[in-house]
Amino acid sequence: MKSIIFLKTKSVFVVAAFFLLARLLYSANPIPFATVNTPIGVAASATDLIVTEYCGQRVDSVDCQGNVTLLAILPGLGDCQEQYVSIAPAQSANAGFTPRDIFVTQGPTVYKVTGGSGTLFATIPGCAEDDPGITFDHVGTFGYNMIVTCQNGPVWQVDGSGTPAFIADTATHIEGPAIPPLSFGPFGGQILVADEFSGSVHAISNTGVVTYDVFLNFGAEGVLVIPSLPCSSCSGGAYFQAIQNFPTNNIYQYPPSDFTGLGGSILITSEFGAGTVLVTYDGTNYNTTFFDNIAGGEFEGGAFADCDIPTPTPTPTATETPTASPTVTPTATATPTETPLPTPAPTATATATPTETPSPTPVPSATETPTATPTTTPNPTATPTPTQTPSPTPTATPNPTATPTATSTPIETPSPTATATATSTPTATPNPTATPTPTQTPLPTPTATPNPTATPSPMATPSPTATATPIITPTPTTTATPTATATPTASSTPTPTATPTPTPIPSPQQGSFVIGDLDAVVGRKITFWGAQWARANHLSGGPAPSSFKGFANVLNPNPPVCGGTWQSDPGNSCHPPDSVPAFINVIAASSITKSGPVINGNSVKIAIVQTDPGYGPAPGHTGTGTVIAVICSQ
What we know:
By secondary structure, the protein is an all-beta fold. The protein has 2 helices and 38 strands.
């Protein structure tokens, strides 16, 4: 049975008045290092920096100079979702892992990155489809296993064979796990998880005991352990942070000097703009202070360079070794020189016999043989391909206010001197039977009673100034047929302002953005598109699935009306428009559900939104605006 403890720890929160002091104390110095398309998860070692993208199942590698290359594309449904990454450290070999292996979470599944793709490593039962966290136990309190957290609350450990084992269920929205060292006080060796909705951190022991709200930070996104021993990557950075909403320069690195003397403490990042706080343990109490913020940044994953991850062994490059060939050293050979002989005497003849001089045997000269030196061949540096930013296409701006207009039936103006015999037509009326029939006996003052008002066309209300109803008073004569003299009581000339404007007939749309029905309030600032749509919008029927990003691509009916329904595909596979005009009509939904890959919702309101700059079709380019009118409400 799971135990639950609510513990209030001593926390010192430095607010606005002390932020400057905190920056002077810690003097954090983050700088932009690389650009990744909507970065989410980050893992780092002394030689590797791995980053996951929000869409496309892409896993990237960033080299020491900040150049980004594609490492792998994982299998999947093509959904846009938060995927996190971790690299197996040396300690994981105790649990059957191969150190340096890379693992990425994708909903309830964990993939091992290999060969430009990924192989299924583990499936976590009951895990939600988005925001699964991942880390490794460096301490040993969880058997040096992989730790996986599920957005909907469960916490699991996974061994080297891919077998998951349940630890506890926090029943809260959690992500960003980490395990601090045993020196980190009572919560050392426990799993710490961030809960952005409660703005707090919970602790889970290896016996399944959950302690809630042990540390606080508004919009808590992740927990990161500062290494006890300083470590930095080949780029010189010690810590790397992903900023999802920055289109460029969105991977920041912090130098090792920012963490001097802080080893064994933790950082808690915020997704809601509150910055990063530092939690230290002084031997008696935990103390929380402001550490740093990147203004305007939407923090996602972060990672310290982990020197517990082994450095890859350099692969020797084969170098051609010249073979030593004996070199013949030419030597001088003595050539006999003929010596002139004296004139021979008759008694004797002297014959000079040349003696052969032996030639020295050629001695091979040893030539120095170069020794093959293992040379580490660096990976080729790839120049990142700039991501083209779609230029907004000017779009015709719809009239923000739907103006109901009237189509009135013009009123026929009878001439004051005209006489009508038996038939008086006081107004132009669609009823052809409105002709009064006078009686044979003249009445003193018979009055032909016309239809008093013109019957308006359907869905149109005549402007009051457009209706002129003349009253006809017949004047009796000596003849049996009364003569009616029409005396109009109103001017028969229409006022120019009474000219009706035709009501436009709505045309089908290619889709519609959606907001929560509780946010469809005039003057309310809203988010109609983005990675965090489900968190930013509020529905009376309960939370929306996190994979819905705000665009309905199937409308029923089309164009949408109050009381209608719609469907969508997850992420940006719903193909939102490249740009938006200054004013858009949006659906307000009270209920959104997901069945398989299909998302369904209703339409209880239609609202007009004045859009802000910054929208883009990628979920990382959030679409925001202000509600200026509500057209209909069910």
